[in-house]
Design brief:
The complex is a heterodimer of chains A (102) and B (215).
Chain A: H1 3-26, H2 33-41, H3 67-101
Helix pairs in contact in A: 1-3
Chain B: H1 10-34, H2 39-54, E1 58-60, E2 64-66, H3 71-78, H4 81-99, H5 107-129, H6 134-159, H7 165-197
Antiparallel strand pairs in B: 1-2
Helix pairs in contact in B: 1-4, 1-5, 2-4, 3-4, 3-5, 3-6, 4-5, 5-6, 6-7
Chain lengths: 102, 215
């Protein structure tokens, strides 16, 4: 990765993390389109999630509803998404060099 | 737009998992052949950006809100809808497993709608309209990706007996026709930003870049 690419990655990550920090304060708490539609037309009973997520609803359980929990969750998620994407894309490319080697 | 657990019977949820696995097979093959070294970081930055912006719900009328999907953005920037499948699969998996956003049983359906269907819709609309005006095409592609993904989720839920087809289409269609405007605008702004700082990363500038493209 050259300097130009490094700069782009840093700049892009900074933009993403600024959005992540602002999101708990600026995001609308209204139900989203699917939730809103479900409130009006749902034909089945709502159920509990099948799987207990560690940071449910982008909040840190120990911090309750405080926006700080939201900031921590969304910043953490942004970094996890970044790293997971690097991992998956690098793995896909690694298979290329493998097949080229033969 | 994330489908929670309990909205799809397990048999139908499994079908969408199978569709997702097949789509990921094609998407990984695309990545293997087409992702060069400098576009891996671009893809990762877009995954981070889309995760963050999906948490930023924008209010719309009727006490409702919505967030962008990002599939059209990724498909246009990479010149392939398979890139959108990969990025949205990562984002939706992180959201489901860490934050309980979208049911784990519905993850296949969510990737099918918001990655595969939104990605192909956004890319197809962009390709069809780009010769008229690139930026108008990008806006409409963003709008259409959200709208068509919402319609596809409504059809999944109607097939599952979770939503009535007619009222489901009216509510989901109306809400996401408005949310799609935000998707279109953010998609234009994001691509304009890339065009300003790194035009060489965009597919339509590739031909103009230096001859030593490979290294």
């Amino acid at each position: 990765m050259n300097d130009k690419d490094k700069k782009f990655v840093m700049g892009g990550l900074i933009v993403a993390i600024i959005i992540a920090i602002l999101a708990p304060f600026l995001a609308s708490a209204n139900p989203d389109g699917l939730e809103s539609a479900a409130e009006k037309v749902l034909l089945v009973e709502e159920v509990e999630p099948m799987f207990e997520a560690p940071l449910p609803d982008y909040l840190v359980p120990a911090l309750g509803e405080s926006p700080l929990g939201g900031v921590i969750s969304i910043v953490l998620g942004t970094i996890i998404a970044f790293l997971a994407m690097v991992g998956l894309a690098t793995t896909a490319r690694w298979f290329k060099s493998e097949s080229n080697g033969n | 737009m994330h489908i929670p657990d309990g909205f799809l019977p397990l048999g139908q949820a499994a079908i969408y998992y199978i569709i997702t696995i097949i789509a990921l097979y094609f998407a990984l093959n695309w990545a293997k052949e087409n992702l060069d070294e400098k576009r891996v970081p671009l893809m990762a930055v877009l995954a981070a950006f889309i995760f963050a912006i999906q948490a930023m719900n924008i209010p719309i009328p009727w006490g409702t809100s919505g967030h962008m999907l990002g599939a059209a953005l990724v498909a246009i920037v990479f010149g392939s809808p398979w890139a959108a499948v990969l990025v949205l699969a990562v984002v939706l998996t992180v959201q489901g497993f860490f934050f309980g956003d979208g049911g784990i049983t519905a993850l296949g359906a969510n990737i099918t709608a918001m990655g595969l269907i939104a990605g192909f819709t956004g890319f197809g609309v962009f390709k069809a309209l780009k010769n008229l005006n690139r930026w108008v095409a990008i806006f409409i592609a963003g709008w259409a990706s959200t709208f068509v993904a919402a319609i596809s989720i409504t059809l999944m839920l109607a097939a599952a007996g979770t939503f009535p087809l007619d009222m489901g289409l009216i509510f989901m269609g109306t809400y996401h026709a408005v949310i799609g405007v935000a998707e279109g605008l953010i998609t234009v702004v994001a691509i304009l930003a890339i065009q300003n700082v790194r035009p060489d990363l965009l597919p339509w500038n590739k031909a103009k870049s230096s001859p030593e493209v490979e290294k």
